[in-house]
Amino acid sequence: MIIAGSENPVYRTPFSDGEHHAVADTTKEKGGSGGGFWPHTLLEAALATCINITLRKYADKHAIPLSNAVTKVKLDRSRAEEVTFAYEVELQGNLTEPQHQALLRVAGDCPVKKTLLKRISFKYGVD
Known about the structure:
Elements: E1 3-4, E2 13-16, E3 21-24, H1 39-61, E4 66-79, E5 82-93, H2 97-107, H3 111-116
Helix pairs in contact: 1-2
């Protein structure tokens, strides 16, 4: 569970899972200080970090010599009825073509992507 609070300057929002801490904010153009992650960038970060971890775990499990993975995610909200998460990965290491292709396939199977593909609902109240 994430708990978010309020602090100055206006809209600066610290949040924590009880162990890790970070700060969100809105942009200066929208009245914030720009002193933290924009909430939509946190959605991008959730997907990018999940893809990256998934790639590295798969490589470790299958003894693939992946030395580094760089994942980029961009959220496109320009269409009112649909959002698109565009992503790409850069794989580094002494990889064969089959290893490279296997890693690219696995990138699309990360748990956050699977969660985002499900029907989403919202309710007030945390159990």
